[in-house]
Structure formats: structure tokens, C-alpha cells
Amino acid sequence: MAKKVSGFIKLEIPAGQANPSPPVGPALGARGLNIMEFCKAFNAATQNIEQGAPTPVVITAYSDRSFSFETKTAPASYYLRKAAKVAKGSAVPNRDKIGKVSMAQVREIAEAKMEDLNANDIDAAAKIIMGSARSMGIEVTE
């Protein structure tokens, strides 16, 4: 018989840096899950990802106080900021352009994020990434 799911917890934690402080501790503690067990498992699972990269994680909490989790790829904005070498997106993206990324860089980001994007092929994924770049005030050059 399958375990009964009591809920899902969605968090964004820097890769390899999960610790019991907020937001991890309170979110897991409220469901009665073992916080240190999650931190150790998450840090082990993200050790081969770039340290400090924001990593979305979906934690499935079960009624017997056990859990499982699934990590996702870092947000497109993180990859775009890194490629354009900027600290943050533009406050007025339609007027103020803050950086440029090449089409090759966009395709590279699309390939990295492909598993988490709602796209059938790389071209569609690249269009999604281009839309994110546009909304951040980053120009995409050929």
C-alpha cells in the first residue's frame, strides 16, 4: 500500500547550503518532518551542482512523518544574470537594457533547463528563455 501524502512544500534553497534556519526549519518543522535528515539529504543531492546556485525543491510530506524530495534546475533568471554578468534585472525592462546575451548562450541555458520547461524541443525552450531575458531587460543578440 502506498503512503498517504499529507502535503507538498516548495522551497528555493542554495545548492549544498541547506540548514535548519528559516526558511527550511519552520517549513519542515510545521509538518513534523526531521529537519536535519532533510538538510543532509539535500546537501548530498546537490553537491555536484554549483554551490550557492538557487535550487528549487519540492518536498512531499507523508502522513507517517517521512518525506521525499525532488530538486529542479535553477531559475532561468539566475542563468541569464550569470551569462549577462549583471547583479539583477532591470527595474524598467522595456526602456533600460542592462546587458546582452548571445543566441548561443540562450540555447545553452535552454538545454540546461529543458527538463523543467514546458517545451517539446530546444527551439521552443529557447523562446521561453528569450522571453525571460526580455522581461529582465537583457537583449538577445544573434
From TrEMBL:
Entry's Gene Ontology BP terms: translation
Residues in Large ribosomal subunit protein uL11 N-terminal domain copies: 9-67
Ribonucleoprotein is among the record's keywords: yes
Modification after translation, per record: One or more lysine residues are methylated.
InterPro entries: Ribosomal_uL11 (IPR000911), Ribosomal_uL11_bac-typ (IPR006519), Ribosomal_uL11_C (IPR020783), Ribosomal_uL11_C_sf (IPR036769), Ribosomal_uL11_CS (IPR020785), Ribosomal_uL11_N (IPR020784), Ribosomal_uL11_N_sf (IPR036796)
Residues annotated as signal peptide: none
Stretches assigned to the Large ribosomal subunit protein uL11 C-terminal domain: 72-140
Family matches, as CDD domains: Ribosomal_L11
Recorded GO MF terms: large ribosomal subunit rRNA binding; structural constituent of ribosome
Superkingdom to which the source organism belongs: Bacteria
One Gene Ontology CC term in the entry: cytosolic large ribosomal subunit
Keyword list, A-Z: Methylation, Ribonucleoprotein, Ribosomal protein, RNA-binding, rRNA-binding
Its job: Forms part of the ribosomal stalk which helps the ribosome interact with GTP-bound translation factors.
NCBIfam families: L11_bact (TIGR01632)
Assembly and binders: Part of the ribosomal stalk of the 50S ribosomal subunit. Interacts with L10 and the large rRNA to form the base of the stalk. L10 forms an elongated spine to which 2 L12 dimers bind in a sequential fashion forming a pentameric L10(L12)2(L12)2 complex. Part of the ribosomal stalk of the 50S ribosomal subunit. Interacts with L10 and the large rRNA to form the base of the stalk. L10 forms an elongated spine to which L12 dimers bind in a sequential fashion forming a multimeric L10(L12)X complex.
Family statement: Belongs to the universal ribosomal protein uL11 family.
HAMAP family: Ribosomal_uL11
Identification of the protein by name: Large ribosomal subunit protein uL11
Organism, as annotated: Pelagibius litoralis
Lineage, highest ranks first: Bacteria, Pseudomonadati, Pseudomonadota, Alphaproteobacteria, Rhodospirillales
